Amino acid sequence: MELRLPIPPEQLTRAERSILDFINTNTDAFLFLSIGQLAERLGLSEATLSRFARHVGCRDFKALKTLVLEQAAAGPAVKLAGTLQRSGRFSPRDWLASQQACLETTAAQLDEAEFDRAVAALAGAGRIYIHGKNASASLARLLHFRLRRLGLDARLLPTSGSELLEGLAGAEKGDVAVLFSFSKLSREGRILLEQSHAAGYTTLAFVSRTCLPPDQAADINLFAYRGPEKEYHSMAAPAALVDGLLVALTQELGPRGAAALERLQKLKKQYYPG
After folding, report:
1. Which of 13, 69, 129, 231 is surrounded by the fewest CB atoms within 10 Å?
2. 3-state secondary structure at position 59
3. Does residue 214 share a domain with residue 136?
4. CB–CB of 52/36 below 8 Å?
5. Domain boundary residue among 68, 90, 112?
6. Pairing, β 176-181 against β 202-207
7. Can you give the residue ranges of the SIS domain (predicted)?
8. Full residue range of the structural domain in which residue 85 is found
């Protein structure tokens, strides 16, 4: 990154220029270093680092980190540093409270009619194709596992490449494609949406944006809040939403879903008794 300062670089001392150069070229490392650790790494005093922070318009070293966070690209390390910077020393109680806030925001934004449409689409689907990559792959696997236990024809799509196209080739009208599209629509997600127009299947997306461009919106969109933009993005609310969808789907399937679970239970007793 290139940190934008309220003063020109020419007004910085040699030591201050070395600090700025470290921030620009080692942004992720800077965000996780204490003032003492950074002073030792650069061979400078903590007083020099504090003076630099004030010279560039920040109250102290912590405020300097906040300035860097505001300007840094929101990669995984920056997001995690933002969470730690906000909370100071990590507290599991505070963390769980923040996850509760994510759940509450998700509940407040939940469109129950859209949720009901998702349940009906899955219950009536011929086949269900599921795609998730990176962190979302865990949610895709959870959904795949639970749907198959209910006796539904669920298929986990490869994450990318021509294998994805091969897996999707058989999708047709009456099928449902589920995708996880949180911060932005991936290339694979765009393929799933575009192909649905030609093949006729229904698309269901888990999203973290309330306003979607028409070309990035699925037929059914379920919102889950994952936290502030430049902080660590939790999967607590999306996982809870997936679980809620599965519970509602089980109720919608009624005897059909119960029968599949009973068959599984009998097999377990037969081959894995006790």
Report:
1. 13
2. coil
3. yes
4. no
5. 90
6. parallel
7. 118-255
8. 9-90
